[in-house]
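Predict the assembly for these two chains.
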Amino acid sequence: MTTHKIAPAPPALTLVVGTEELLADRAVSLVVAGARGMDPQTDVRDISAGDLTFPAIQEFLSPSLFSERRVVVVRGLGMGRAEEVADDDDESAPASGSLDDRVVAALVAHSKTDEPDVHFVLLHRNANSGRGQLNALKKGKATVTDCKTPTRKGYTDFVAAEFVSLHRPITPDVPETMVAAAGRDLRALAAACGQLSADYPAKGRLDRQAVESFFAGRVEVDAFAIADAILAGDTGKALVATRQAIAGGATGPAITAALAFNFRNLIKASSAPRAMPLEQAAAEVGLRDWQLRKARQQLTGWSPDAVARALRALAEADANVKGAAVDAEYAIELMIIKLGRARRAG
Amino acid sequence: MSVFDGLVGQEMAAHELQVAVSDAQLVLGGQAGPAMTHAWLFVGPPGSGRSLAARAFAQALQCQEGGCGQCKDCLDIANRTHPDVVMTEPVGVHYGVEDVRELVAQASGSPIRGRWRVFVLEDADRLESQQMDWKPANVLLKAIEEPAPHTVWILCAPSLQDVIATIKSRCRVVSLRTPSASEVTEVLITKYGAEPELAAAAARISQGHIGQARRYVRDEDTRNRHSDVMNLPASLTTLDACIEAAAQFVETADERMKDSVKGRDTQEREDVRQVYGVGARGIEARGVAKALNDLEKTQKRRAKRARSDAVDLALLDLLSFYRDVLMVQWGADVSLINKEFAAQLHAAAAGASPEITMRRIEEVLRTRATLSGNAAPRLVLEALFATLRDPAVAH
């Protein structure tokens, strides 16, 4: 995706801090676009932190014969030792994710240049070990771009901002729906925003219906959706939900734990006194009142023996997904089928 | 008084070891001593006193009197402070390769104070693990085969089958047997001053495991935990009771685990900080985060093992309960392990057929196997109790 706006003149030193790749890439292309706007012949160099030695930076900073403009992108800063090659026994060698002190000093000095013809972009992952260096780099006049992984609200804000930059008006419920459907992945969200605004006619506001038909019912599924389907006795739906949950990154242990939690609630609900008011009965068995109300609905169709069989299937699956079986996904699917059978057997 | 007197019901083994000790004397004098060798494998069921026997042998080797139990050497070994006697047990479920390498490095030295360097490896069956490609055991091989002149290895394991063949073939085997109930009872009375009746019950319930029998006699919590298990089967009437009991079971195991590691964890953390000089002015504590991290991992492994051991002990109690129920149902003329709980046993026997009891026993055994893996203990116990409630659901 390209930005059509005219990019501002880039600063001498940009620090891109964080791990969210999409945002980092955009920060880099903003600088490159800015430099190219001033000089279409701009030379872009992409190097790793280990290659930015003191001689190298002196070469970058020395005046060029043809006064050409340069962008130097430095990747892999602030990674910390743990992320590098593990068997590095030489404790005294600096981590490759950090810079020589002289290089840092040169960068700080350069960041104060008024009309630079070399623009540095440093991609810093901001792991614990690199923090000191980051603070040293900030001492000059560097521009800092924050690329840390957003919070939940951050994702919806991102979607809203994305449509603004695409000049597409949307209804307020669109960002929420998009995050629910595409998941917490900025790249996927950005791609979906671009696709949506290209696919739907430019007139009027983009609404929730458009988003839903675009994703065709693919809404992020978590382990609790599987539990709901199983407890309602819908094995088919539960299997579909399982596949979606696994595709969405849910792990086997998370699924068995969520199911076990739901079955425990079911058992607690079965012993809750019926004659009492809901809140009181819920407190009696250690549930919230909405949990008790829901579990009571689910109880129809589950005999005690069926629940006992379900517990057996769950325990077996839990052992399987934690290493007792070769294929954890199959173990989960087998469990879903067994749970369905347990209910039918009554 | 000899250190070998403390071994209950092991006259054969004690005799063999005493002969070895006197031949060891000859070896030190430069003569041939065929009864002494450099690698020993002590095998015997849990509770037969493998580690006690290993300790007694180490004392007898170091002591001028052949194991008096009174001299500085003997006492230091008993306190685990003797520089020439190293007793190790796996920190987690298995020995790590690094742990064994360190032992091997230590074993190449000469004795510092004593006459021999003795290395005792408890739970030597945990040397081999397929996940680690048998590495810990392989690291040990060479050291056991050709040790330094005065190094002695003593490996302890439940049975010969539990030790990898290459190790087994390099060791001389000493077999220990499970002491009989009357032998255990006598020790509890004479050595620990237990009431005869309590001692007899402890000997029966612990099934010849002296350490557990002693705990039963001395510690009221242990007795309460046992009677809780005896009352458990009758309480499993509804699923609600089952999940309640499972939660209780795990909680009890957690408490036992905390008791066994409490204090030790914090102390170890403090030690590490002190070694690295954390908090001292002007010292940059480099590497301390990594050291603390490693320590925490070790402690977690240890806690996990302590917890699963506690659950397993309770399941063994449960197993003895159903065994007794089966004896009652068959009218077999054998003594009951849990005689004190006759009421519970007879009630359970009347409420089920022997077939159902057999299925229950099978379930408990299966659960023990499952719990040796990674499954969540609470969930596995819930499934077990729900099945014990009515074994028909297993089919």
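Confidence is low (pLDDT under 50) at residues 81-95 of chain A. The CA atoms of residues 116 and 236 of chain A lie 64 Å apart.
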